[in-house]
Protein backbone atom coordinates (compact mmCIF):
# COMPACT_ATOMS: atom_id res chain seq x y z
CA UNK A 1 0.00 0.00 0.00
CA UNK A 2 2.86 2.40 0.86
CA UNK A 3 4.45 1.66 -2.48
CA UNK A 4 1.23 2.47 -4.36
CA UNK A 5 0.85 5.73 -2.43
CA UNK A 6 4.47 6.69 -3.17
CA UNK A 7 4.10 5.93 -6.91
CA UNK A 8 0.82 7.88 -7.06
CA UNK A 9 2.41 10.86 -5.26
CA UNK A 10 5.38 10.82 -7.63
CA UNK A 11 3.06 10.69 -10.65
CA UNK A 12 1.02 13.67 -9.39
CA UNK A 13 4.20 15.68 -8.67
CA UNK A 14 5.59 15.05 -12.17
CA UNK A 15 2.25 15.67 -13.89
CA UNK A 16 1.57 18.95 -12.10
CA UNK A 17 5.11 20.30 -12.18
CA UNK A 18 6.83 22.27 -9.52
CA UNK A 19 5.77 25.76 -8.37
CA UNK A 20 8.81 27.42 -9.93
CA UNK A 21 7.50 26.46 -13.41
CA UNK A 22 4.43 28.65 -13.07
CA UNK A 23 4.58 31.72 -15.31
CA UNK A 24 7.01 30.22 -17.83
CA UNK A 25 6.70 30.40 -21.59
CA UNK A 26 4.16 27.57 -21.65
CA UNK A 27 1.54 30.07 -20.51
CA UNK A 28 2.58 32.87 -22.88
CA UNK A 29 0.01 33.78 -25.52
CA UNK A 30 0.88 35.42 -28.84
CA UNK A 31 -0.49 38.85 -27.98
CA UNK A 32 1.78 38.94 -24.92
CA UNK A 33 4.58 40.00 -27.31
CA UNK A 34 2.65 42.87 -28.95
CA UNK A 35 4.84 45.34 -27.01
CA UNK A 36 7.61 44.42 -29.48
CA UNK A 37 5.65 45.60 -32.53
CA UNK A 38 6.87 48.80 -34.14
CA UNK A 39 9.53 50.54 -36.18
CA UNK A 40 12.52 51.29 -33.98
CA UNK A 41 15.63 53.43 -34.49
CA UNK A 42 18.78 52.89 -32.43
CA UNK A 43 19.61 55.93 -30.31
CA UNK A 44 23.04 54.77 -29.07
CA UNK A 45 24.54 54.03 -32.49
CA UNK A 46 28.09 54.76 -33.62
CA UNK A 47 28.56 58.16 -35.28
CA UNK A 48 27.70 58.06 -38.98
CA UNK A 49 25.58 54.92 -38.64
CA UNK A 50 21.84 54.37 -38.32
CA UNK A 51 20.38 51.08 -37.14
CA UNK A 52 16.71 50.21 -37.45
CA UNK A 53 14.60 47.30 -36.28
CA UNK A 54 11.01 46.60 -37.34
CA UNK A 55 8.71 44.04 -35.69
CA UNK A 56 5.23 42.89 -36.70
CA UNK A 57 2.88 40.08 -35.72
CA UNK A 58 2.53 37.79 -38.74
CA UNK A 59 0.21 35.17 -37.20
CA UNK A 60 -1.03 34.19 -33.75
CA UNK A 61 2.18 32.23 -33.17
CA UNK A 62 4.73 34.19 -35.23
CA UNK A 63 6.33 37.62 -34.95
CA UNK A 64 8.69 38.76 -37.71
CA UNK A 65 11.55 41.19 -37.28
CA UNK A 66 14.06 42.78 -39.59
CA UNK A 67 17.11 44.81 -38.56
CA UNK A 68 19.60 46.72 -40.65
CA UNK A 69 22.35 49.29 -40.33
CA UNK A 70 23.17 51.99 -42.86
CA UNK A 71 26.33 54.03 -43.24
CA UNK A 72 25.96 56.99 -45.56
CA UNK A 73 23.53 55.56 -48.13
CA UNK A 74 24.72 51.93 -47.98
CA UNK A 75 23.32 49.02 -45.98
CA UNK A 76 26.31 47.57 -44.13
CA UNK A 77 24.55 44.94 -42.01
CA UNK A 78 21.17 43.19 -41.89
CA UNK A 79 19.44 40.25 -40.27
CA UNK A 80 15.96 38.85 -39.98
CA UNK A 81 14.36 37.47 -36.85
CA UNK A 82 11.41 35.27 -36.03
CA UNK A 83 9.78 34.86 -32.64
CA UNK A 84 7.56 31.81 -32.85
CA UNK A 85 5.76 29.26 -30.74
CA UNK A 86 7.07 25.73 -31.07
CA UNK A 87 5.29 23.10 -29.02
CA UNK A 88 4.73 24.57 -25.57
CA UNK A 89 7.60 27.08 -25.74
CA UNK A 90 8.76 30.06 -27.75
CA UNK A 91 11.91 30.45 -29.84
CA UNK A 92 13.70 33.52 -31.13
CA UNK A 93 15.45 32.66 -34.39
CA UNK A 94 18.04 35.03 -35.83
CA UNK A 95 19.07 34.71 -39.49
CA UNK A 96 22.03 36.44 -41.00
CA UNK A 97 24.52 35.44 -43.66
CA UNK A 98 22.61 32.23 -44.46
CA UNK A 99 22.65 30.86 -40.90
CA UNK A 100 19.56 30.42 -38.68
CA UNK A 101 20.37 30.46 -34.97
CA UNK A 102 17.64 29.49 -32.46
CA UNK A 103 17.43 30.94 -28.94
CA UNK A 104 14.93 29.32 -26.57
CA UNK A 105 12.95 31.76 -24.44
CA UNK A 106 13.93 31.26 -20.83
CA UNK A 107 12.22 34.13 -18.98
CA UNK A 108 9.17 36.12 -20.04
CA UNK A 109 7.57 39.18 -18.45
CA UNK A 110 4.80 41.58 -19.49
CA UNK A 111 7.31 43.72 -21.40
CA UNK A 112 10.36 41.59 -22.04
CA UNK A 113 12.02 38.25 -22.48
CA UNK A 114 15.39 36.53 -22.24
CA UNK A 115 16.39 33.85 -24.72
CA UNK A 116 19.33 31.46 -24.56
CA UNK A 117 21.56 29.38 -26.82
CA UNK A 118 24.51 28.27 -24.67
CA UNK A 119 26.17 26.39 -27.57
CA UNK A 120 26.47 29.48 -29.77
CA UNK A 121 29.73 31.46 -29.61
CA UNK A 122 28.22 34.97 -29.66
CA UNK A 123 25.70 35.81 -28.52
CA UNK A 124 24.60 33.17 -26.05
CA UNK A 125 21.89 35.42 -24.59
CA UNK A 126 19.48 37.82 -26.29
CA UNK A 127 17.15 39.89 -24.12
CA UNK A 128 14.48 42.41 -25.09
CA UNK A 129 12.81 44.85 -22.71
CA UNK A 130 10.27 47.57 -23.45
CA UNK A 131 10.06 50.57 -21.10
CA UNK A 132 7.70 53.40 -22.07
CA UNK A 133 8.62 54.46 -25.63
CA UNK A 134 12.01 52.72 -25.61
CA UNK A 135 13.04 49.23 -26.60
CA UNK A 136 16.25 47.71 -25.21
CA UNK A 137 17.99 44.72 -26.78
CA UNK A 138 20.96 43.12 -25.06
CA UNK A 139 23.20 40.55 -26.72
CA UNK A 140 25.77 38.88 -24.49
CA UNK A 141 28.18 35.99 -24.03
CA UNK A 142 30.69 35.40 -21.28
CA UNK A 143 32.31 38.80 -20.54
CA UNK A 144 31.01 40.69 -23.60
CA UNK A 145 27.70 42.59 -23.71
CA UNK A 146 26.24 44.97 -26.30
CA UNK A 147 23.19 47.07 -25.44
CA UNK A 148 21.01 48.40 -28.24
CA UNK A 149 18.74 51.26 -27.16
CA UNK A 150 15.89 52.01 -29.55
CA UNK A 151 13.28 54.76 -29.75
CA UNK A 152 10.28 55.00 -32.04
CA UNK A 153 11.41 55.66 -35.63
CA UNK A 154 9.83 58.57 -37.49
Give an account of the 3D structure.
The chain has 154 residues and is mainly beta. It has one domain: Lipocalin (Beta Barrel). The protein is built from one helix and ten strands, in the order H-E-E-E-E-E-E-E-E-E-E. The protein has one helix at 2-16, and strands at 38-42, 49-59, 62-71, 74-86, 89-96, 99-109, 112-116, 125-131, 134-141, 144-152. A ten-stranded antiparallel beta barrel has the order 1-2-3-4-5-6-7-8-9-10. The radius of gyration is 19 Å and the shape is globular. Mean pLDDT is 84; it is low at 1-26. It comes from Neolewinella aurantiaca.
Count of DSSP helices? 1
Number of domains: 1
Strand adjacency order, main sheet = 1-2-3-4-5-6-7-8-9-10
Report the C-alpha radius of gyration, rounded.
19 Å
CATH-derived topology: Lipocalin
According to DSSP, the number of beta strands is 10
Structure class: mainly beta
- Biggest sheet layout: 10 strands, antiparallel, barrel
User: Helicity level, as a percent range?
Assistant: under 10%
**What is the CATH class designation?**
Mainly Beta
Q: What coarse outline follows from CA principal-axis ratios?
A: globular
Order of helices and strands: HEEEEEEEEEE
Overall CATH architecture: Beta Barrel
Amino acid sequence: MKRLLMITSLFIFVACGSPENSGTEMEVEANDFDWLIGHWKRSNDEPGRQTFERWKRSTNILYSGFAYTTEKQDTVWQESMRLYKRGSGWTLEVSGEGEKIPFKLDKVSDSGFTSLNPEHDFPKVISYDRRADSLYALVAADEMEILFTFGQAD
